[in-house]
Amino acid sequence: MQRLQKVIAHAGIASRRKAEEYITQGRVKVNGEVVKELGVQVAKKDQVEVDQVPIYQEEPVYFMFYKPRGVISAASDDKNRTVVTDYFTEVKERIYPVGRLDYNTSGLLLLTNDGDFSQKLMHPKYEIDKVYIAKVSGIATNKKLSPLSKKMHIEGKTLAPAKFEILSSDKKAQTSIVQLTIHEGRNHQVKNMLKACGFPVEKLKRERYGHLTLENLQVGKYRELNKNDVNRLIEETKIK
């Protein structure tokens, strides 16, 4: 038996908090009866509907994927472009990405059918580290990148301070390799932050998400996370 809101979240319909709103609004039925009370427990055999649409009670699954460049971080695309779920044809569950990586950004992306887990990891208040490696135009210096260590105001949004490290510079090519650690996940955040410091990004890869790394994983491949991985990710969030 599981709480009704948890079942809805695991089905990828909404976060657990949003699922609770659906329940109190009378949008959820269990075995044909509207349920408005929180805390109701349902079994596998029970039929759950949200807005008259039955949901399949899948077991939660979690994957780590090495996203290639030129792939959309979505479960579908109206322009028929390649999406990340195209690489998961053998997975029967209806999974979707946790957050996103830009079309031309490669690297570590999580996918799941657990809406509650996804919401927890995506919310900036939970402060889970994400590490990026960027190839930028120009010779980076600590002084020029120092604004990254403070709150930045870009396109009307306040971005939390980031940690950075200059890994290398190529004076002949006039490029630098910079490692950036952030815990938010706003659209084009890394590119916008580096550009604001005078260093347009030429190439970008996410190398780490919490404790997870791309070690031993090839581009376009994935592995299922075990219970240990999932629990550790949750533990790594600063606010439970």
Automatic annotation (TrEMBL):
SUPFAM superfamilies documented for this protein: Alpha-L RNA-binding motif, Pseudouridine synthase
Top-level division of the source organism's lineage: Bacteria
Keyword annotations: Isomerase, RNA-binding
Record domain RNA-binding S4: where: 2-59
Pfam families per record: PseudoU_synth_2, S4
Listed EC numbers: 5.4.99.-
Keyword Isomerase included in the entry's annotation: yes
GO cellular component terms, semicolon-separated: cytosol
GO molecular function, one term: RNA binding
BP GO annotations: enzyme-directed rRNA pseudouridine synthesis
Family matches, as CDD domains: PseudoU_synth_RsuA_like (cd02870), S4 (cd00165)
Family per similarity comment: Belongs to the pseudouridine synthase RsuA family.
NCBIfam families cross-referenced by the UniProt entry: pseudouridine synthase
Name under which the protein is recorded: Pseudouridine synthase
